[in-house]
User: Which sequence fits this backbone?
């Protein structure tokens, strides 16, 4: 009887999958308007350096170490008897308000650059803190609710990310429609709509999704980022996986700042047209998210991730070619190809990532992988912006700067394929059980 009650009240079910999906989508949709519309406006229309734009967009990601601290701290410390959902709500609301403020802050930079930059740093930081806090909370909760049932883990991951990509497709189409013709007032109204949708999803998704804490067993005491990182980095398999995640995400996301400006500066596309590029990418990701689940089961997680990397590399190479030829339809097909590869990599790597945790420290390890995720995006955004600006300054040819970045992304994906073959889930678990106790014993002295 007790076991049945625990399973019913504390375990995963379809209602909880739906609620966690709402939270995930609510947080994720705050990213799209910033990385598909504001980046293009700032670089192609306002003439800001791509490095500056990359730094602003990366400010949230540079705060990602808070995920390790939050994950480790919430593992042990309940609020109102709950470990995760209060932080899901707080983080989600911060992300929504930060996104809304970002649309206004960039226009302050036109009238008073110093004041506007200060405002932009503030709102991007609020957005980034919110995304970090919410992400580690709902991913940790999903892992805990699924427990040792790999079926629920794979279902929850696939549903959450499939819904997110569908929301990207729909939102990208709506952005393209609502921003034509483009005006500042229209942009503000669109960002207000995104704020409202995000807040509603986060609040509805967080209600009664987490069981009350009772008899919780936690086997770590990583109360600060330094100790938490020591715990993770003491495991050689975790070290390699961390580096692999960073490299993959740099290679995939270095284009986040540049695709829309590339379409504007090289191919002459409008704001509405470049805002729709996220929908094309999303369709590709959606196709392989759905088709990737049986492929991962048939091929395995590593071969599937490597196949996705090869397809994504082909997409980047095609983008460079389309820029040289000046073909917009070819550019859109290349983005679709990029989305297909990214989707397959996502479903395979996320499934692998959820295997790279131990139940007694789920928040700690999910926080570490979250740091890798955001660190990769931050490095990619900053490097891509700087390299684009440097190449343009040297050659005065826009296509050269973009082509350098896209070419380096291809190289990074091939290196990631080589590194992935050295990582073993079984070895990770063997090392984690031993080293977790060892490191924390030293840290407690």
Assistant:
């Amino acid at each position: 009887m007790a076991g049945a009650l625990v399973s019913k009240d504390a375990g995963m079910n379809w209602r909880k999958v739906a609620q966690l999906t709402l939270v995930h989508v609510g947080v994720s949709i705050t990213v799209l308007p910033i990385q598909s519309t504001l980046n293009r406006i700032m670089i192609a229309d306002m003439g800001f350096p791509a490095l500056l734009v990359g730094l602003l967009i990366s400010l949230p990601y540079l705060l990602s170490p808070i995920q390790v601290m939050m994950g480790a701290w919430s593992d042990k410390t309940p609020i109102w008897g709950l470990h995760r959902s209060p932080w899901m709500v707080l983080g989600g609301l911060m992300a929504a308000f930060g996104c809304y403020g970002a649309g206004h802050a960039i226009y302050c930079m036109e009238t008073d650059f110093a004041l506007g930059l200060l405002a932009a740093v503030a709102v991007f930081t609020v957005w980034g803190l919110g995304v970090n806090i919410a992400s580690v909370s709902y991913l940790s909760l999903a892992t805990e609710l699924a427990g040792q049932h790999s079926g629920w883990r794979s279902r929850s991951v696939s549903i959450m990310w499939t819904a997110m990509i569908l929301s990207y497709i729909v939102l990208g189409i709506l952005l393209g429609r609502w921003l034509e013709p483009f005006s500042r007032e229209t942009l503000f109204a669109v960002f207000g709509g995104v704020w409202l949708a995000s807040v509603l999803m986060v609040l509805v998704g967080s209600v009664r999704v987490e069981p009350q804490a009772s008899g919780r067993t936690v086997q770590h005491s990583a109360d600060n980022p330094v100790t938490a990182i020591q715990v993770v980095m003491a495991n050689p398999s975790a070290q390699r996986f961390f580096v692999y995640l960073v490299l993959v995400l740099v290679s995939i996301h270095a284009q986040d700042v540049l695709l829309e400006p590339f379409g504007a500066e090289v191919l002459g596309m409008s704001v509405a047209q470049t805002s729709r590029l996220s929908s094309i990418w999303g369709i590709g990701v959606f196709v392989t998210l759905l088709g990737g689940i049986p492929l991962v089961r048939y091929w395995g997680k590593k071969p599937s991730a490597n196949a996705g990397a090869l397809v994504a590399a082909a997409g980047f190479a095609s983008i460079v070619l389309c820029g040289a030829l000046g073909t917009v339809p070819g550019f859109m097909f290349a983005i679709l190809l990029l989305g297909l590869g990214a989707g397959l990599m996502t479903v395979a790597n996320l499934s692998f990532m959820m295997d790279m945790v131990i139940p007694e420290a789920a928040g700690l390890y999910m926080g570490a992988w979250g740091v890798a995720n955001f660190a990769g995006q931050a490095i990619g955004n900053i490097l891509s912006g700087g390299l684009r600006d440097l190449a343009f300054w040297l050659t005065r040819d826009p296509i050269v700067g973009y082509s350098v970045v896209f070419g380096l992304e291809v190289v990074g994906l091939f290196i990631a394929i080589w590194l992935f073959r050295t990582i073993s889930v079984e070895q990770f678990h063997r090392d984690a059980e031993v080293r977790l106790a060892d490191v924390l014993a030293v840290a407690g002295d």
Summary: Residues 8-208+221-443 form a domain with the Growth Hormone; Chain: A; fold (CATH 1.20.1250.20). The radius of gyration is 21 Å.
